[in-house]
Design a protein that fits this description.
Chain A has 451 residues and is α+β, with helices and mostly antiparallel strands. Chain A contains 15 helices and 21 strands. The radius of gyration of chain A is 22 Å and the shape is globular. Classes of the chains: A alpha+beta (451), B alpha+beta (60). The complex binds flavin-adenine dinucleotide and iron/sulfur cluster (2 copies).
Amino acid sequence: MTNKYDVIIVGAGPAGLLAAKAAGLAGMKVALLERKSEISSLERMCGQTLVSMNDYYFDDLVQYNREGKKIVFLNNGFSCNYEGPTQNCYAWHIFSPNGNRLAFGLPEETRKKGDYGAVGLAYDKEILFRCLLEEVTAAGVAVFTGIDVDEVSTSDEGVTVSGSNKSFEGLYAIAADGTNSRIARQLGYNRDRTFYSYLLSKGWYMRNVKAPSMDILMSSITYKPVAPGYMFIFPRPYDDELNVVFLALDARVNLDEVADYFMKENPFTAAWFAQAELLDMHASAQYIFSPIAAPYRKRVLLAGDTGSCQELENSGAMISGWKAGSAIAAALKEDRVGTASQGISNYIQWWQKTYIEKCPHEAYIMNFALPYVLDAAEDFNYICSLVKEPLPPCWNPYAAMNHMGALVQSLVPTIQQERPELMPKLARMSQPMTEILADTTEACKPPAHFD
Amino acid sequence: MVRINTDECVSCGGCIDLCPTVAIRMVDDRVVIDPEKCTTCKICVQVCPLNAPRVLEEAG
Ligand SMILES: Cc1cc2nc3c(=O)[nH]c(=O)nc-3n(C[C@H](O)[C@H](O)[C@H](O)COP(=O)(O)OP(=O)(O)OC[C@H]3O[C@@H](n4cnc5c(N)ncnc54)[C@H](O)[C@@H]3O)c2cc1C
Ligand code: SF4
Ligand code: SF4
C-alpha cells in the first residue's frame, strides 16, 4: 500500500510538469514518469515561443512578470518560474515566394509599446524545463526518469502504469505523454479520430542569418513537386540567433530539399542564409488526428498534446496540465470526503468549451492550407501584392485565420476583376480541411492497425 | 528488419510514437528497435526527418 500513489503522471513536458505541480501543491502523492533521462533536455522540435501574448488564448491571458521572473496565467490564477532570457516577438510576417509580405503587425509600431506590444515571447525551453522541475520537486512530487511507459492497465480501484521493467500503482493517472500518445492509443481513443496528415519538421538554431528582422516571426512556403513545404523562423532569446524550422504535412516531401530551396534556391530567402552558421539540430514526426472530444476514460485523464496534436501549443499545454492536476486532486478529495464528483467533469467541460468549440481543430490546420489552395507560387505572390495594409498584430493560430479570412473577402472584388481564374481556387478555402488535404491524407494514411 | 543509425538520430521520439507494433523504445536516451517486434513495415523509415532508420537485408 505504501507504494501506491494518488496520481501517476506520464510525460514531463509542459503539460505533465504543470499537472504534477498542481497535484503536488494540493498535497497529493504524485509520481511523474518520463522516458528521457534528463527532463530539462529538449529532444522534440519546438518553436519555443509563447503564442498569443496580446490576446486571450484558451480563455486565458498570459503575461511574463520580468521582475518576479514568472510566467503568469492571469485568468486561471497560477504561475510558473522562468529564470531565463527572453526575446519579445513584435509581429508575424508571411512571405510569398517572391518576397511580398502579409504582415500581422508592423514591428515599427508594436515595438513602441514594449512588452505590451509583443505578440509572442521567445524563451529557452530547456531553462523553462529546469525551472519547472525545481518547482515540481519542491511540491513533493516523486520524479522517475528513464521510464518509457508502454502499458497502462486500469480497474475500478486504480491504475497500474509500467515501462522499462518498472511498475507503478496509483488511484488515477494523467497521460501527458504528448502527441500520438501511446496511452491514448491503448485506451482506444484513436479509433474515433480522423487522420489528416503528418507533421514533420527538421531545423537548426542558426547564427548570422540576415533576416529582415531578428525580433519578428517569419514564415514562407514552397511548392515542391509532391506537396508544399514550409519554413518558420522563430526569434531566439540569444544575440544573433534564430530557430529556423522546415516543415511538411506530407511524408513524400523531403525536408532536406525544402531546406535547400529556402537556403539556396529561392533568391529572396537564400540571401538571408549566405553566411548562416548552423548550430543545434532538432526534429519531430507526428500524425495529425482530429482532437479527442472527451479526454477521460477509465481513471486516466489526458492533458496537453495527448488529447490534441500540438494545437494547444505550450501555453495551452501548461493550462490544461494545471487544470488536469487540479481536477484529479479535486476528484481524490471528493472520493475521500464522499461528496458528489465534479472535478473531472469540470475539466472535460473546460476542454470542450475552450478547445473543441473556441479553438477548433479545423482553424488550426487551416494555417497550412494556403499553399494547398493557391497551388502556384504566382498565385500567392499576386494575392500578397494586393495587401496594402498590415493585418492586426497577431501570433495566435486561431485568430490569424479569422484575420486572413476577412482579408481574402475584402480582396474578392479586385481578384474577380483582375484574375477571375483564381476564384475557384479561393472558393476551396471554405471546404473542410479533409478535402483540401485529401491527396496528402490518401498518400500518407497510417496502417490500419494504428489504433 | 530495421535499425536506427545512432549518428543521425536526435532522439526526437517521433518514430517511437508512430511504430505500430511498439517496437521502438528509448533506452538511456538512445532510440532502439526491438528486432523481435519489428515487422519491417517501414513507417519509421518513412517518417524520420533525418533518415536515421535503415532497412537491413534479412539474413539468409
Ligand atoms: C515544429 C514545431 C514547432 C512548435 N512551435 C511552437 C511554438 O512556437 N510555440 C508553442 O507554444 N508551441 C509550439 N509547438 C508545440 C509544442 O511543442 C507542444 O504543443 C508542447 O510541447 C506540448 O506539450 P506536452 O507537455 O503536451 O507534450 P510534449 O512536450 O510532447 O511532452 C511529452 C513528454 O512525454 C514524454 N513521453 C512520451 N511518451 C512517453 C512514454 N511512453 N513514457 C514516458 N514518457 C513519455 C516525452 O519524452 C515528453 O517529455 C511546436 C511544435 C512543433 C512540432
Ligand atoms: S524519428 Fe528519426 S530522429 Fe526521431 S527518434 Fe526516430 S530515428 Fe531518431
Ligand atoms: S519498421 Fe515498422 S515495425 Fe519496424 S521499427 Fe519501424 S515502424 Fe516499427
